[in-house]
Amino acid sequence: LLLPGFIDAHTHFPQIDMIASPAGGLLDWLAKHTFPTEARFSDPEICRDTARFFLDELIANGTTSACVLGTVHPQSVDALFAEAQQRGMRLVAGKCLMDRHCPPELRDQGDEGIRQSLELAERWHEQGRLSYAITPRFAGSSTERQLALAGELAKARPDLYVQSHLAESEEEVRWVRELFPRARSYLDVYDSAGLLRELSIYAHCIWIDGDDRRRLAQARA
Predict the structure, then answer these.
(1) b vs e for 197-219, b when ≥16 Cβ sit within 10 Å of the residue's Cβ?
(2) Around 136, how many Cα atoms within 13 Å sit in the side-chain half-sphere?
């Protein structure tokens, strides 16, 4: 008897050891728990060990395909893809792009994050059942330049996926509005950068309006 596997459209493999960590809100949770945890992934051995455990847990719970965020470290994505390839899993994954509003040790320097993303895509995209995703963590942790360069990469490589977060909390939406005052909405930040298209996957999408929903449908995101 063959049964279809589950598909998880959004998950973070580095966060498996901090599930249910308490915090006062999304931004507080990132600062207190997520960023300190992800900083540990500068160690390739931690990347490999966590990737093995994470993928084994997905399979044990019936999930055979997933869209996954790594950390800012390229080695986190290398480890994840290598382990997935051994298991024959279908993964869409990418390294986080972050060049502001995060700890210095997790910050892309200059345009390095875009270069690393392209190198990872060339190494892993369409290798077996693997696909690469251009992965700004969320609008608040990327400068306008980094988002624009990510959009240029998306335009040059329409075969790549795009994944990020959108409107997860009201606090986050207010903050993004302050950071990008010329944008009509949170979604418009990504759209203006060229990151809203077919093969774009946005997580959460809770605090969006009717215009945003229509634009997502129009873009076939």
Answers:
(1) bebbbbbbbebbeeebeebbeee
(2) 30
Q: What is the pLDDT of residue 3?
A: 82
Number of helices and strands (H, E) in the chain?
9, 7
- How far apart are the C-alpha atoms of 208 and 141, rounded to whole Å? 19
**SS3 assignment for 58-110:** HHHCCEEEEEEECCCCHHHHHHHHHHHHHHCCEEEEECEECCCCCCHHHCCCC
Among 174, 202, 172, 198, smallest CA distance to 187 is for 202
Element (H, E) at 201: strand 200-204
Q: Which two tokens stand for residue 107?
A: 């910050």
Stretch 137-152: mean pLDDT: 98
- Better-scored residue on pLDDT, 91 or 1: 91
Flag whether the pTM goes above 0.90: yes
Residue 23, pLDDT > 90, answer no
